[in-house]
Design brief:
Length: 178
């Protein structure tokens, strides 16, 4: 069967039309029913004794976990929750390049409380042991010293088949009973 130029144009038009129809249906399905995109949501306000109104402040979220490690004032107006993996090279880069400025400019000044949560990734074989080492250090009030040692030494232990001896060495270096 010979495909003519007109048959080819028809097929192209049918494919494009079908794709546009599917896109329109997808956009319609993802829209929020009953809410106009132009509808404005009024800001919450509070009234003061003199009758003036001010925008209400958002309520503070309760951030508490028994395994959290924190730096900064618990009364700081902002809390940053960091989920991190001691073996992640990007997390290590953040600790090296950004973390010192965050501490100096925001945490130490009382503007921010930093909450650190372990988030060892399954494809980092030493991440779980590193998290365990940091928690063991926390039992001797040396969590942050171990945190810093783990990230600083990451290139030395991240590819080891068994990093536990290295972590025990860090514990000794920071004066822990290991």
């Amino acid at each position: 069967m010979k495909i003519t130029r007109e048959t080819n144009k028809f097929r192209t038009a049918a494919v494009v039309s079908t794709a546009l129809l599917l896109l329109a249906l997808l956009l319609a399905a993802c829209g929020t029913p009953g809410i106009s995109p132009d509808a404005a949501v009024p800001a919450a306000t509070t009234s003061s004794d003199d009758g003036s109104q001010a925008a209400a402040q958002p309520a503070a979220a309760e951030v508490e976990n028994s395994t959290d490690r924190t730096k900064g004032s618990p009364d700081a107006p902002v809390t940053i929750i960091e989920y991190s993996d001691f073996q992640c090279p990007f997390c290590s880069r953040w600790v090296e390049q950004t973390y010192p400025s965050l501490l100096k400019d925001y945490v130490d000044s009382g503007k921010v409380q930093l909450v650190f949560r372990d988030f060892p990734l399954s494809f980092h074989p030493n991440a779980d042991e590193a998290a365990v080492a940091s928690r063991c250090a926390a039992e001797q009030d040396a969590y942050w010293a171990m945190h810093d040692a783990l990230f600083a030494g990451q290139p030395a232990w991240s590819e080891l088949p068994d990093a536990k001896p290295t972590f025990i060495g860090y514990a000794g270096d920071i004066g822990l009973d290991a």
